[in-house]
Write a structure and sequence with these properties.
It contains 18 helices and no strands. It is mainly alpha-helical. It comes from Caldimonas caldifontis.
C-alpha cells in the first residue's frame, strides 16, 4: 500500500523516449533492473570508497556502499509506505558516475576540466544513465523514468540545471525532489558514516579509544561493553554500529512522521513544494554532523589516506594529459566523435575502475605509483 505522498509508477512523468509498459514489472522496478544490468554498475565493485581496491578485500567499495544504501532505504521506505523499488533504483544508481580513487579522482578530473565545464560525479551519474550506457538499439543511456533520474541528481549548479530540462528544474525554482529521493540522500549519509567507522578501525587508522570523541558512537560502544564485558573488540564495534544504524533508522522514521503530520502532503507534487520532510530529529542531526567532522579530521585527512589519494590524483591528471595529447590512446569509440572534445576524455576516465586506471597510467607513462 502506497501513501498518497509516495511516487506511483502508474502516474510517472515518463521516460525521455516513450516505451510500452513492461507486462510484469512496474516502471521503477524496470529502472532498477536496467541499472543492475548496466556496465557502470558492475564497475562499482572495483571503485574506491575510502580505501583503494587493492588495499584489502574487506573494505567497502562503491558497489557494497550502494547496496547498503539500498538496504537502509528500503527498510525506511517500507515503514513510511514509500515506493521501495524507486528507492532501490535511486540508491543503486547514485554513484554510477564516480571516478576511480573516490573524491580525489573527482577533484583531479574537475581541475582538468575547469575550462570545459568542470566535472561533478553526481551530474556524471545522470550522464551515465541518460547518455553513456550503450545497450539498447533505440536510444542512448538506460532511458529511466523521470522519478529515478530526479533522485540520482542530488546536486546541480544553476548553469547545468538550465540545460537539463525538467529534471534540473528544482535547482532553479527551489523546490524539493520526491520523498523517495530525499530518503536515498539521507540513507547515503547514514551508510557511509557507519561503514567508514568500521573500515577505519579495521585498517588501523582509527583506534577504539578515539571513538569516545564521538557521542553517537561512544554511547553504543559503552553500552555493549557493559552488557558483554568479555566480547572481543571487533564484535563490540560490530554490535555498536548495528545499534547505531538501528537507532538512526528509527529516528528518521519518527522525525519524518512528525514532519508529514505537520504538513499533510496529499500528493507527491505537494511534497516537492514543501521544505524537506525526510529528516533526522534535531538531536540526531547534530550527532551525525559531529561524526562526519570526526571522520573528516581523523580518517579522510589521515596522512596515509592523503598519501594514497594524492597518488590517485596524479594518475588521473597524467591520464588526462596523455589522452589530451593523443586521443587515439583511448578506444576508438571515445575519440571518433569530435563533438565531445575533452568531455570524451572525462567520460572515459570517470568510467575506469581503480585497477584499470593504475594499469593504464603505467602503460602510458611507464611509472608505477602504487
Amino acid at each position: 500500500m502506497l501513501a498518497p505522498y509516495a511516487c506511483d509508477p502508474a502516474q510517472s512523468r515518463g521516460r525521455r523516449h516513450p516505451e510500452p509498459d513492461a507486462p510484469t514489472r512496474n516502471a521503477f522496478q524496470r529502472d532498477r533492473d536496467r541499472i543492475v544490468h548496466s556496465t557502470a554498475f558492475r564497475r562499482l565493485v572495483y571503485k574506491t570508497q575510502v580505501f583503494l581496491n587493492h588495499e584489502g578485500d574487506l573494505f567497502r567499495t562503491r558497489l557494497t556502499h550502494s547496496l547498503e544504501v539500498a538496504q537502509l532505504g528500503r527498510s525506511i521506505a517500507r515503514v513510511l509506505d514509500l515506493h521501495e523499488d524507486l528507492v532501490e533504483a535511486i540508491a543503486l544508481a547514485h554513484d554510477l558516475g564516480h571516478t576511480p580513487f573516490g573524491h580525489a579522482g573527482q577533484d583531479a578530473l574537475h581541475e582538468c576540466m575547469r575550462d570545459d565545464g568542470g566535472f561533478e560525479h553526481n551530474l556524471q551519474s545522470l550522464r551515465v544513465i541518460d547518455e553513456l550506457e550503450e545497450r539498447y538499439p533505440g536510444f542512448d543511456g538506460l532511458n529511466l523514468s523521470f522519478e529515478t533520474r530526479e533522485g540520482v541528481l542530488k546536486h546541480c549548479s544553476r548553469t547545468n540545471a538550465q540545460r537539463l530540462g525538467d529534471v534540473g528544474r528544482r535547482f532553479l525554482d527551489g523546490t524539493r525532489p520526491s520523498l523517495e529521493a530525499q530518503l536515498c540522500n539521507l540513507a547515503d549519509e547514514i551508510a557511509y558514516n557507519a561503514h567508514d567507522i568500521d573500515d577505519g578501525v579495521r585498517s588501523g587508522l582509527l583506534h577504539f579509544e578515539q571513538l569516545d570523541e564521538v557521542p553517537l558512537v561512544a554511547r553504543y560502544r559503552h553500552a555493549v561493553l557493559r552488557e558483554h564485558p568479555a566480547l572481543p573488540p571487533k564484535r563490540v564495534l560490530a554490535e555498536a554500529i548495528r545499534r547505531m544504524l538501528s537507532d538512526q533508522v528509527y529516528d528518521v522514521i519518527e522525525a519524518t512522521r512528525q514532519a508529514l503530520d505537520r504538513h499533510h502532503p496529499r500528493h507527491v507534487d505537494e511534497v516537492r513544494q514543501l521544505p524537506g520532510l525526510l529528516c533526522f530529529t534535531e538531536t540526531m542531526r547534530r550527532e551525525s554532523d559531529t561524526l562526519k567532522r570526526f571522520l573528516r579530521a581523523n580518517l579522510y585527512r589521515h596522512p596515509q589516506v592523503v598519501e594514497t589519494t594524492e597518488r590517485g590524483k596524479q594518475v588521473v591528471r597524467e591520464l588526462f594529459a596523455a589522452y589530451d595529447q593523443d586521443p587515439r590512446e583511448m578506444p576508438a569509440d571515445h575519440w571518433q566523435d569530435g563533438r565531445k572534445g575533452r568531455r570524451a576524455i572525462a567520460d572515459y576516465i570517470a568510467g575506469m575502475t581503480d585497477r584499470f586506471a593504475i594499469r593504464e597510467h603505467e602503460r602510458l607513462t611507464g611509472s608505477r605509483l602504487f
